[in-house]
Every structure is written in C-alpha cells, then in structure tokens.
Amino acid sequence: MSTPARVLVLNSGSSSVKYQLLDMNGGERLATGLVERIGESASRVAHSPSHGPRREHTARIDDHGAALRAAAGELARDGLGLDSPELVAIGHRVVHGGLRFTEPTLIDDNVIAEIERLVPVAPLHNPANLLGIRQARELRPDLPQVAVFDTAFHTTMPEYAARYAIDRATADKHRVRRYGFHGTSHAYVSRKAAELLGRAYEDTNVIVLHLGNGASASAVAGGRCVDTSMGLTPLEGLVMGTRSGDIDPAVVFHLARVAGMEVDAIDELLNKKSGLVGLCGDNDMREIRRRIDEGDDEARLAFDIYTHRLRKYIGAYLAVLGRVDAVVFTAGVGENAAEVREAAVAGLDGLGLAVDASRNAVRGGGPRLVSPDGARVAVAVIPTDEELEIAQQTFALAGAHGSGRERATEGHA
User: Interior CA angle at 355 toward 352 and 359, to 5°?
Assistant: First the structure.
C-alpha cells in the first residue's frame, strides 16, 4: 500500500477560490475546481475530476468558508473528501511574503500575524489569501498547512537590484523596495529549463518570461533570481493585460495636478484600465491578433508596444546575466502566442536569439525548443505549473515535520 500523499492546493482571491487536489506519489492531478462570484446570489462552482465529467452549477455562496465547504462537497462526491486519511497537507498560495518569508512556511498564528502585517504592501491579495487560510484551518485544524509565497523566489536578488534609488530611511520605514511576483512560476520554469537543456540547475542561466494577463520577467543565474521586472507591487515592468508596466512616476503627479484625478482613480487607471486594454480596448492576445489581421491600427500599435517592452527586458537581462543559456516563454500568452515569441526576439540575431518558424508555430505539448539547431541561446516554451510547484513544496515541508495535530502547530519562518 502506498504512503498517503494527497495535497490540496488553494488559491484564494477576493471573490473566488481555485483549488487542486494532487497525489504526490505520482504527481497525478485528481481534481481541479473553481468557486467564483463569492458573496453574489448566483455564485458559480465548477469542478473537474480527473476521472469523470466536469460538473458546474450556481448557488448562493456567501463567504470563503461556504466556498471551501462547496469545494469539499464536490471532492467528496468523487471519493476525495477532505476527511480522507490520504490528505496529508494543504498548500496555500500567498502573494506577498516580504523579506521574512524566503521559503515555504508551515502556518501558525505567528505566521498569520506576519502575513497580516504585510497587507499594506499587498492590499488586493494578502487579505483574500488570509481568508482561505483561516477557513481551511477551521475545516482541518489537524493538518499541516503551508504558505508558499509568490515573492519568495525573488528574495535572492542582490540589494543593488532590489532597492529603489529613493531616500533610504523612508524606504526602510515603509518597506519600499522591489519584491517581485509570480515567483512560484519562475522557480518551476527555470528548473524545467535546465532539465530541457540537460544542464545542472546551478550551472544554468535563464531569462523567464511569464506572459499571462499579468506578466513578468526574471533573470535567473544558477537557480537564483538576480533581477525581476515587477517591483513593490505587480504594476511595474512589462506591459500587461490591464496594467501599464513601467511608467514615469511623474505621470501620477501630472494627472493629479492637470487632470484633477484622485489617487484611487489613478491607481485604478494604471492597474485596471491600462496595458493592452487601455491601448486598444482588448486584453486577449487572440482577439488582438485577429484585429491585426483585419488591418486594425490600434491593435497593431498595442502589440508593438507590448513586444517592444519584452525586447527591452530581454536585452537588459542578457546584460545582467552576462551568459544566457535560454530565454523561456511561459503562461497563457507565452505558451500559445507564436507571434509574440517571434516578435520578442526579432532583431536580436546578433545576440544569438532567433526562433525557427516551423517549431515556433507548433501549439501545445510539453517543454520544447523553438530556436534553430545550434542556436547560441536556446529559445524555449515551457508550460508553467504553479499548483504542482506549490504541492511539491508543501509536501516536502509537511513530510519534514512529522504527522498529526503536532505538525499544524509548528512554525517555520
């Protein structure tokens, strides 16, 4: 009989809970699901077991506790209930871990208090993550629960990459520095890139481009992040679906003085009404490409601004790393938009970067090279799997802390 090894991964948002149940004995995904529109009269529950048809229904789900109970009910219908002795741990995605949390952390009251203390630097994310943690602990107080932080992978950045050039005392007092995000994805993809190249992780230099609705780049030297595009918040860096990315900070002052805009309105503009949607009204790259094919100039300009920013970061991180073994594209746009990959490396032949048209046109599949044979710098597509990364880190930490109720009361920060 195999050792119990199921891990539930929870990603709690302000009005949604995403979940996956994985069996770490073989890495099998037993079920995935989503509870969304929490607090509305017609909340939606979608559940997909690995063996069996997808189920979906609407119901009133008032809060995150009810959402987790709904998820537990769906899992129980498949014989995968949260009361199963096969379930050994619950892993939580937590967006911001500051500088204290540099690795997966066993959750206790002190850890919860510290995550709460970080709410001012992650007001949109950490409160929702905490709701999921608290409700999961109520449901299974006997299980070890592990926080895996988006920022943790980036805590290896040297100070000269992490600090902004502002008054040091002010920055330290208010914890203003570059933290970076999407770290779980960057960790997973950079490690898979080394495997794809047949190189030791500690001897592989990679530029990772995580391109979804949110987008970030990282420079990874020997398994350690040395620079990343997102900063104090996920707003900095690449052009994204609805976020501006890099912008002159004085734009904020200009809009306040000249347009009379309040801070909250500017915040909403830069985070929700900018990026691709601000430039052309669409944040779906498939729709933007369709419009380009029909001769739409706004869509073409948005695409060009998006890929120009990508090329700038690739060039910058080539300089940061000195030697680059691969540039890797991942996440929804990175994995599926061949035109984005082609445009991102266009004109960089002199730096050893190019894509092979036929390889680049292939959709789907696992990790693969899309660069020509013999290219000085490999260009790769590697599907990300943040849930698997969270599950692996959770399982490793929970296993290292024994079993039973005692595990749930230990702290590891």
Answer: 145
pLDDT band at residue 62 using 50, 70 and 90 as cut-offs? confident
User: What's residue 401's pLDDT?
Assistant: 60
**pLDDT at residue 404, as a whole number:** 42
Q: Which of 36, 133, 31, 30 is nearest to 91 (CA)?
A: 133
Cα separation of 369 and 75, whole Å? 37
Which of 216, 346, 343 has the alpha carbon at shortest distance from 275? 216
Q: Is 94 helix (H, G, I), strand (E, B) or coil?
A: strand
Residues 6+ apart with CB under 8 A from 72: 81, 82, 139
In whole angstroms, give the CA distance from residue 238 to residue 344: 12
- State what percent of residues in the chain have pLDDT above 90: 78
Q: Is 378 helix (H, G, I), strand (E, B) or coil?
A: strand
In angstroms, the CA 25 to CA 7 distance is 10
Q: What is the pLDDT of residue 400?
A: 63
Active-site hit among 23, 150, 325, 385: 150
Mean pLDDT, rounded, for 386-407: 75
Residue range 392-399: mean pLDDT, rounded = 90
Give yes or no: 150 in active site: yes
What DSSP letter does each residue of 152-207 carry, written as one string?
GGGGGS-HHHH--SS-HHHHHHTT-S---S-HHHHHHHHHHHHHHHT--GGG-EEE
Show the 3-state SS of 32-66. EEEEECCCCCCEEEEEEECCCCCEEEEECCCCHHH
Q: Residue 31: beta bridge partners?
A: 21, 49
The whole-angstrom separation of Cα 374 and Cα 390 is: 35
Closest CA to 122 of 231, 242, 276: 231
